[in-house]
Amino acid sequence: MNRLRYFIQRTLFSMRQNPLLCSATIGTVAIALMLLAFFTLIVLNIQNLTREWSQDIQVVVYLDQVPSEQKLQQWIDEIQQYPDIERVNYVSQQQAFDRFHARLGQNADLLEGLMPEILPASLEISLSESARSRKGTESLIDLLKSNSDFHDFRYGQEWLDRYDAFMFLLKLIGIMAGGFLIFATLFIISNTIKLTIYARRDELEIMGLIGATPMFIKTPFMAEGALQGAIGAGIALAGCHVLYYFFLKNGLAALLTTTSIESIKFLSIEYQAGIILIGLLLGFTGSLLPLRKFVRL
Amino acid sequence: MIQLCNVGKIYPNGAPALHNISLKIPSGDFVYVTGSSGAGKSTLLRLLYCAEKPSRGQILMGGRNTTRLNSRNVALLRRDIGFVFQDFKLLHNRSVFENVALPLQVQGTNKQEISSRVYQVLQYVGLEYKLQRKPLELSGGEQQRVAIARAMVVNPRLLLADEPTGNLDQALAVEIMEMFNLINKSGTTVLIASHDQEMLQRFPHRSIVLHDGNITHDSMPPEPEQQDNI
After folding, report:
1. Tell me, what's the ipTM?
2. What pLDDT digit, counting tens, does each position of A83-106 carry?
3. Nearest CA distance, A52 vs chain B (angstrom)
4. What is the number of structural domains in chain A?
């Protein structure tokens, strides 16, 4: 209990006593994490948008003949047994005709005199989110082919290839840029904390001489690093929030060519907690690395 | 209590600091380690408080071989040793009280006991009325007394001092040496590295002379009768 009180007192006292060094560390963490939060915000919003796009990924099975109600229900039940199926929707010839009519807009009069029977009825099969890829779609088609009544499929092959490539690129950029940002942040924070520890190397030496164990010497520094990291992360989130409201919301909406500003969202509470945790861990690890060098009994 | 067997120290840059040092210092002794600058006095002290490991040989302190201690046990060993340095090594951002209390806080002593022991030891060195001052507000002699108080607050079995009077004028140096004598009389082994010959003569004790890393002389002080004859 005495030690815990000592560690808390030392941590707070040291931050109060070295306001410049403390501010430098918090400022560094705040700027570095603001970049990270900003980047995460953009990636997550792009992901959200592509998730909306991916809802269009579906397999359409065109039917040669209009099935009886019983047959149709049997097919739907069969398809719903397949893995990764989200929804099966029957589009009758009339519904297909109405859609086509609506799509033609002012040119709809081209359809005048034609009957809905010119268009085939179809089954629109939506995949669950995890299977919305070329691979998932092809697996479904393989299963559908086992039913001899199904032989005409459409699933937007080119669009799927482009979607897969885009998602791969997005993930790659996310991992590379995110990883780079985290390492750069750790490097900057570690160096800033190294400076603060270097400025207090006499204290480390004296503590060692009077019989403090390495853990006793390191704990207040690590607690200080973690606290500064968490405060810095809090400031980063606040800064990111301000940027989001004043610039990012409109900017991202324009960038992602979405008309609805409401679809551009700030980081969820889980991500915000994650950024605070990253700040805390970066501060902690950032102190630990130079301490290993300076605290040697 | 302290035993060195064939101890040698060569620094990583290849510079030899000590050669084949063997000596015994019984508990309760008062010993000077003396010699010119670069003779190896400070290295010998650094080996004793495990700031350096010997390149060869063994060091036994209180029956423990200090060359084989891990960092936690080094810390525990140092709790039995008091340190006094020429540059005092005080924390300037903490008060006299906080500086002296530090070794007790490290050992997890409770707050009340810390207060009472720090006050007692500050009374002992005559600084109880300056306990809220910061070290830089004190004179050199007073700062050294704070360092002595910090060393004494844990009742160490061994007191190591590296040129403790090097930064002080004659009168203050005498005052500090008298304090070391008192500490020694209370049973603490005292080992002082110093090249201040005047102090060595004024306060005669066993004296180990180092030259280029070798012991060239290990002499006991003259008996009181002999001193009178001189």
Report:
1. 0.85
2. 888 888 888 888 888 888 888 877
3. 58
4. 2
Identify the domain containing residue B99 by its residue range. 91-155
How many domains in chain B?
A: 1
Min distance B74 CA to chain A CA atoms (Å):
7
Chain A hits for B71, Cβ within 8 Å: 213-214, 296-297
212-271 of A, contacting B, C-beta below 8 A: 212-214, 216
What is the nearest CA distance from A227 to chain B, expressed in angstroms?
21
pLDDT in tens, B200-216: 888 999 999 999 999 99
| Site from B52, B67, B78 to mutate, A interface, most A CB atoms within 10 angstroms | B78
Residue A218 confidence (pLDDT) above 50: yes
Segments of chain B with pLDDT less than 70: 222-230
Instruction: Find the domain containing A215 and state its range.
Output: 2-53+163-294
SS (H, E, C) chain A: CHHHHHHHHHHHHHHHHCHHHHHHHHHHHHHHHHHHHHHHHHHHHHHHHHHHHHCCCEEEEECCCCCCHHHHHHHHHHHHHCCCEEEEEEECHHHHHHHHHHHHHHHHHHHCCCCHHHCCCEEEEEECHHHCCHHHHHHHHHHHCCCCCCCEEECCHHHHHHHHHHHHHHHHHHHHHHHHHHHHHHHHHHHHHHHHHHHCHHHHHHHHHCCCCHHHHHHHHHHHHHHHHHHHHHHHHHHHHHHHHHHHHHHHHHHCCCCCHHHCCCCCHHHHHHHHHHHHHHHHHHHHHHHHHHCCC
